[in-house]
Amino acid sequence: MRDTAALIPDGIAHLPDRSKSSPPAWVPLRSSALSVEINPLGAQLSTLRDADGRDLLWDGDPAVWNGRAPLLFPIVGTLAGGEYRVGNKTYRLPRHGLARVRLFSILRADDRAATFRLVSDAASFEVYPFEFELDVTFELHEASLTVMSCIRNTGRADLLASFGYHPAFRWPLPYGRARAAHYVEFALPEPAPIRRLDGNGLLASDARPTPVVGRRLALVDELFQEDALIMDQVRSRSVTYGAPDGPRLQVEFPDAPYLGLWSKPGAGFVCVEPWHGLSDPAGFAGDFRDKPGVFTVPPGTARPVKMVITWTG
Fold first, then answer.
1. pLDDT, tens digit, 9 for 90 and up, residues 287-300
2. How many Cα atoms within 13 Å fall on the side-chain side of residue 244?
């Protein structure tokens, strides 16, 4: 079991900086095929290893990118001007929201499963005016890790939110295949155009021809010169990542209507990101309710969002 401290993004001045206190112990889970560790700070999947102890997840090197698999809540991406409006009130949030820098409580943990919870409080109300419980359960079933996130509305008004997963996998995977041999293969053909971000991190208005050929996207650094590759009309509900003649990883996302793929040119990771939300479109000035990808959770109800990562040897 390991400890860590996280770097706190700019723009969350009102939220407690948990990195300045004692870092929480990571929670380990193990099956016959996989082992994982979850950091309660952000409920972030922080290690993913095969049965031989080989690392499949990015190590969060802060010289490149200090994330590993952050949870994106209550927004995905960037807000125009760093702020959003609910009715006649304006609030500020940094890219990808607040959950990734908050300390989750541990509701339960055993060898195979653990559940973490984040609850709205006075600090969160200053940047996000909704009452919520966010429960995240990690569960190992042999070669599969299921992550089930549940956004529960504990207030009396509709809760508005987006949610996303952001796992960063090693590129190349640790099986001796060349970095250039790696690809992402979709469950279905993906002919629809893709979207890009502008220089402010906002969704550009123009669509681009897809670089996916049939069902396969060859991974090259040039794909990420303009930040993330965004698929806002993705048909598949799963993808497989790896090289053709080696072990691979499958990511299933039954609840996410969008998919982001991201890396930094030359970096040792690629992110496969199931999203229910997007950056603000360039020029967007509407109410948060009208932001693309925002969903509504009525009082007393919950919205589940699932992801499954499976190692295929």
1. 999 999 999 999 99
2. 5
